[in-house]
Design brief:
Length: 359
Amino acid sequence: MTDIPTVTGLKSRAVIAPLQRPVRTAVGTLPNAPLVLIDLETDLGVTGQAYVFGYTPVTLKAIVAFLSELEESLIGQSVAPVEQARFYENRFRLLGRQGLVGMALSCLDMALWDALGKAAGLPVVNLLGGRARPIQAYDSYGVVDPKEDREDLERSLERGFQAIKIKIGDGDLARDIAMVSGVREIIGPEIELMVDFNQSRSVPDAVRRIEALSEFNLAWVEEPVPAEDFVGHAEVRAASTPPIQTGENWWFPQDMAKAIDAGACDCAMPDLMKIGGITAWLRAAGIAEANAIPVSSHLFVEASAHVLPVTPTAHYLEFLDIAGSVLQEPMEVKDGHVTARGPGLGMTWDEDAVARFAA
């Protein structure tokens, strides 16, 4: 029987990781990925690793400081993700777990699962009762120019992607139509095409734009209005033909349940860093199954490849590699699919890159 490791330390480091493609959205551009790398040290010599995506460098010092404050409460504790999640839920009951607190706790949960998998010599997906298998992925773009980005889009097709997502809503409706029609012309009628407004529109404007874009056979329309506006999403959904996708900004499974009760979406996209890590993802997957809602991942390709195989209504894995530049082996796409690696979550830092990109 494998011994359960005990936590002996928690270290975190900030990096600004380069992206292969800067991500331009309707509400701003991400030229790189501000990350906090977590190393959860244990008495068995295995180190659990995970990362926090801070969205902006402004968050990095605060996240590192918060994780440093958690170290004392972790030392001497068993690597038991469910128990630790329950402990921190109670500890931060009065403060709440949204925002940077929730992001840090979610990624701590992923580091605990990674350590547990490494101690057992197994991929996390096996600990969850599943097996590593290819998961269909879509290539995730920002705002694109169909002429300038044509080669990249064609390269996505050469890599076997059967689905592509682009971001829209950064200009007027004519710009949206030109972008979507241009991409559709490049990828053809058989490839799934998703669009993401990144919360940039009002309900009436979202309805107007989606109606005009419906002729392009969209697989889904993502976050047309502010993420917290469940009622607004429900109104857009009721007036629109393409499925409505949301969920990357849900905080823990409770938000997911509220959104579904409000009729806010046809499909769901929880973010492992905001939904509560792997432990809470499993609960969210149960909510989705009970409501027959397809579930896709948001970012975190390494961990997402482990949780989607045990998600009953698994749909797509979003391929947007934000940490590959600081990993010894970035995740690979084969024939448009991604497969979980092990042991643990299958991640090892490239220490030379970490030093080079240190924030």
